[in-house]
Amino acid sequence: MTTNHELAIAATGLRKSYGDKTVLDGIDIRVPAGTIFSLLGPNGAGKTTAVNILSTLISADGGQARIAGHDLGAEAHAVRAAIGVTGQFSAVDGLITGEENMWLMADLHHLSKREGRQVTAELLERFDLVEAAKKPASTYSGGMKRRLDIAMTLVGSPRIIFLDEPTTGLDPRSRHNMWQIIRELVTGGVTVFLTTQYLEEADELADRIAVLNDGKLVAEGSAEELKRLVPGGHVRLRFSDPAVYEQAATALRETTRDDESLSLQIPSGGSQRELRAILDWLDAAGIEADELSVHTPDLDDVFFALTGNPVPAPSPQTTPKETVR
What we know:
disordered C terminus; alpha/beta; 15 strands; 11 helices; 6-stranded mixed sheet
C-alpha cells in the first residue's frame, strides 16, 4: 500500500509531438499519494495528452514515469491495474441500465459474479444511484451519468484516478456534488489527478496546481502560493473616525487613500508575516482600524498573467476576493 510519504505519480521530462506541433515539452510531474493534483491550462495546452500518457493510453516520445511504483513503459499492465480513468466524455453505455454498466465493469475486472454484485450494490448506494439502477443509463441526467462513470471506475479499487475535466457541462449543483465525491475519494486514500478548465474547481479541490501553457509547466504550487506570484495584493484598512483615518494616513507610507470611504490600501502579498507587521505597527501607534480586509489575486489573475490567455471558462459562482479578518 502506498503511504502518504510516497509519490503516486513521478514523471520526468515527458515529451510528445504530433508532426511539427510539440504538445508536451519535457514536463516534470510529482504527485504525493493521497492528494489532489490539478493540471490547469487553456484548451490545447496538452492536459489531455498528459493524462493519456500517464494512463498508458498513448506513449510519450521521451521521458520516464512511475505510476503507483510501476515503470510506465516496462510495467504498463501493472500501471493499468492500479489506476482508473474518467474523461469529460462519459464511458457509460446508455443502452443498458446503470446496474448492468456496473456488472460489465466487474466482468472486465474478472470479479466473480458474487463479488461483482456486491461491489455494484455498494457503489450504487455510495453514489446515490440505487433508485435509478434498473433504468437505462440514457435516461440519466448529466450529473447522474458522471457519478455512474466514477462508480464504474471504482469497481477495480484503483489507487490513482485520473479525472479529465470531470465536471464539464454540469450545472452548478451537480458540479458541487462532484467536488464532494472527489474529496471523499481522497479521504478514502485515493490519489486524484485532475485536469480542469474551471479555475474555481482547482482552487476548491487541489492540494497542488500546475499551470500548463504551450506544452510547458509555467508554474506549480498550492493555490495560495500561485496567487502570491501575481502583483496586486493589498491590505485594506477602513476607519469610521476621520481623525484616526488622517492619523493613519499621515503615519503610514506607501498607502493609497480613499477619502470618501475613509480607507487606506497597503501593498501586501497577504502572508501571515506581513499581516502581523501591519497589526503590530497599528498597536504601537495606538491606531485601531474598524475593519481590516485582505485582497490577494485569484486564480483568474494568475492564469492570465502566466499564460497570456483570457480566463478559459467562467466559474458558475465567483469567490469574493476580499475576506474580512
